[in-house]
């Protein structure tokens, strides 16, 4: 657990501070060093148009993480609101809302996201809105379950008996009690969102050049892998480490708060 | 059983219809049409093309016509591959995607159930812990990272297998794509099998079987494995869906002429009928797989029937 957190913190700090510390911006082109091997000037070498790969990897990590956090927050907001209202209202409203979630689960999501990207142009804002809008379903189910359990607890009944209006009870008494579970699922949503963003960017439908993300770097690296395998392996390793840390931490949190 | 199928179909058909309507509307409201290429078309030609494809009609008319044709298996003409109908493109791509997906599913199930079994034999043991770690690693390894890495080692490095291409479906060409596609699913199936088994192994009917003197292996295969596979069966539907999406990337990386490649090309070129056709088909397949998974569920665990 501590090791994982340390590794994740290191990646976060590197992505946050790294780009500012390097002499090369992520999009600066050095025509004297195209596909350069790693050296003292370019620690990871350069890509096909002479851009520093270390700078690009750090920037790509930053973009991937920002998109992931933003999209996961969108997913958490929609999911928590939907699940809380469904669980609190109960009866027909609950039935209708959860049926909708069931139906949405059956949609081929990746294709809906790709359609959204194709239709509304490929901006980062849309990438995370699109992903966030399709990743909220699990959150809605979990939160609903929690709210239904909480509803029968004495302190909620006491609040109701004391005349607290429904919205106040929800915000003041119910939401704080589902925060832990919501946080655990937020952590578990993060790697999924990272995966979707990289997937889209890999296909050329997500983040656009010259801006970069881990998906784009893996794609570029795969194109050049016969000449310089490290261009594929380094961003690939960063991506996998990130996904692994987030997944393992999320699973630990879930064990602690759910169950 | 029949009522289960009918009940599922009753929700499946509206879902499919919603997918078609949603993707139809999205594509029609998209800024930039299929005829807005790099070079602007002559206005008369443009108008003629739009009339020829019926895109000047009101939207409800276009949609009704599209659904009507769809019901007869006609997906309409491709706007970019001018000499082909979407039905022809789908007929070419679908066998490739299905071969790839079926082989990957088979491999994932074999690997996943076998390693899940091995892990559950001795919970907390060394094998269990290492299998657990490897399975988690596999589930987070994106196929677009594993696939190029596999190519790097086995095709470019060792030269054992071809780098890409379909090769008329020759087994050599299928090895790397199938492995890359199967690995994440194999990891998830291993975890589910292990979880299902450890739970079932503590239940009364399994302990009773052991008490009657059945060997551990026989207890496992006769009494424990079937109910333990219930969570796996419910995962197969979504897995099949995941394999289809994963296939989009795998087909792109290995230059395989499957549905996924047509989908990506269609999406990048705004080829409405092609994208619509492929999304509809994917949705139908996913719904079908979920239905099959539900049926398998009932077969594996009689308690959920009815």
Structure explained in plain terms:
The complex is a heterodimer of chains A (259) and B (306). With 259 residues, chain A is mostly helical. Chain A has one domain: Orthogonal Bundle (MetI-like fold), CATH 1.10.3720.10. In chain A, 75% of the residues lie in helices and 0% in strands. The mean pLDDT of chain A is 80. Chain B has 306 residues and is an all-alpha fold. Chain B has two domains: 70 residues, no CATH class; 204 residues, MetI-like fold. Chain B contains twelve helices and no strands. The longest helix of chain B is centred in the middle third of the chain and has 36 residues. Chain B starts with a helix and ends in a 6-residue tail after the last helix. The mean pLDDT of chain B is 78. Classes of the chains: A mainly alpha (259), B mainly alpha (306). Chains A and B meet through helix 4, helix 8, helix 9 and helix 10 of A and helix 1, helix 5, helix 6, helix 10 and helix 11 of B.
Short description:
The complex is a heterodimer of chains A (about 260) and B (about 300). Chain A is mainly alpha-helical.
Number of domains of chain B: 2
> For this structure, what is the CATH homologous superfamily of the largest domain in chain B?
MetI-like
Could you say how many structural domains of chain A there are in total? 1
Please give the most extensive interface between any two protein chains, plus how many residues each contributes: A-B, 41 and 47 residues
N- to C-terminal distance of chain A: 19 Å
Q: Would you state the CATH class of chain A?
A: Mainly Alpha
| CATH architecture type of chain A | Orthogonal Bundle
The proportion of strand residues of chain A reads under 5%
CATH architecture of the largest domain in chain B: Orthogonal Bundle
Summarize the topology:
The complex is a heterodimer of chains A (259) and B (306).
Chain A: H1 2-21, H2 53-89, H3 91-105, H4 109-120, H5 124-134, H6 137-151, H7 154-161, H8 166-202, H9 214-223, H10 230-257
Chain B: H1 2-28, H2 43-52, H3 59-71, H4 86-121, H5 126-140, H6 143-157, H7 171-201, H8 204-211, H9 216-228, H10 230-253, H11 259-269, H12 272-300
């Amino acid at each position: 657990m501590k090791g994982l957190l340390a590794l994740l913190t290191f990646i976060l700090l590197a992505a946050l501070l790294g780009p500012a510390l390097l002499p090369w911006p992520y999009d600066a082109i050095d025509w004297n060093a195209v596909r350069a091997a790693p050296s003292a000037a370019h620690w990871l070498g350069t890509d096909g148009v002479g851009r520093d790969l270390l700078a690009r990897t750090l920037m790509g990590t930053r973009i991937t993480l920002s998109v992931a956090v933003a999209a996961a927050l969108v997913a958490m907001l929609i999911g928590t609101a939907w699940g809380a209202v469904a669980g609190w209202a109960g009866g027909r409203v609950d039935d209708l809302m959860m049926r909708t979630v069931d139906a949405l689960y059956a949609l081929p999501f990746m294709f809906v996201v790709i359609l959204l990207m194709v239709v509304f142009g490929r901006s980062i804002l849309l990438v995370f809105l699109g992903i966030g809008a399709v990743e909220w379903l699990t959150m809605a189910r979990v939160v609903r379950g929690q709210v239904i359990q909480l509803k029968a607890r004495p302190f909620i009944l006491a609040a109701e008996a004391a005349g607290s209006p429904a919205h106040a009870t929800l915000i003041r008494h119910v939401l704080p009690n589902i925060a832990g579970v919501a946080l655990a699922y937020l952590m578990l949503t993060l790697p999924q969102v990272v995966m979707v963003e990289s997937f889209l960017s890999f296909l050329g439908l997500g983040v656009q050049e010259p801006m970069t993300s881990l998906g784009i770097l893996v794609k570029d690296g795969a194109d050049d892998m016969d000449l310089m395998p490290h261009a594929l392996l380094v961003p690939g390793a960063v991506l996998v480490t990130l996904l692994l840390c987030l997944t393992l931490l999320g699973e630990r949190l879930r064990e602690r708060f759910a169950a | 059983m029949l009522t289960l199928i009918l009940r599922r179909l009753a929700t499946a058909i509206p879902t499919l219809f919603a997918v078609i309507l949603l993707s139809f509307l999205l594509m029609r409201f998209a800024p930039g049409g299929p005829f807005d290429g790099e070079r602007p078309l002559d206005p008369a030609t443009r108008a003629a093309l739009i009339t020829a494809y019926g895109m000047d009609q009101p939207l409800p008319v276009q949609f009704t016509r599209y659904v009507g044709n769809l019901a007869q298996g006609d997906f309409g003409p491709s706007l970019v591959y001018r000499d082909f109908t979407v039905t022809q493109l789908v007929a070419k791509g679908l066998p490739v995607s299905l071969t790839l997906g079926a082989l990957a599913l088979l491999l994932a199930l074999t690997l996943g159930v076998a390693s899940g079994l091995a892990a559950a034999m001795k919970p907390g043991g060394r094998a269990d812990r290492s299998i657990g770690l490897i399975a988690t690693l596999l589930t987070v390894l994106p196929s677009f990272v594993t696939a190029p890495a596999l190519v790097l080692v086995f095709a470019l490095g060792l030269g054992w297998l071809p780098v890409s291409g379909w090769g008329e479906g020759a087994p050599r060409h299928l090895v790397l794509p199938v492995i890359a596609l199967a690995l994440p699913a194999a990891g998830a199936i291993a975890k589910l099998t292990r979880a299902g088994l450890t739970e079932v192994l503590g239940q009364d009917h399994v302990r009773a079987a052991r008490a009657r003197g059945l060997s551990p292996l026989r207890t496992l295969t006769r009494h424990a494995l079937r109910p333990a596979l219930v969570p796996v069966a419910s995962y197969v539907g979504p897995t099949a869906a995941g394999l289809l999406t994963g296939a989009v990337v795998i087909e792109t990386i290995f230059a395989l002429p499957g549905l996924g490649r047509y989908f990506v090309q269609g999406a990048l070129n705004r080829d409405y009928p092609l994208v619509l056709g492929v999304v509809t088909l994917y949705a139908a397949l996913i719904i079908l797989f979920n239905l099959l998974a539900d049926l398998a569920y009932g077969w594996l665990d009689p308690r959920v029937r009815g």
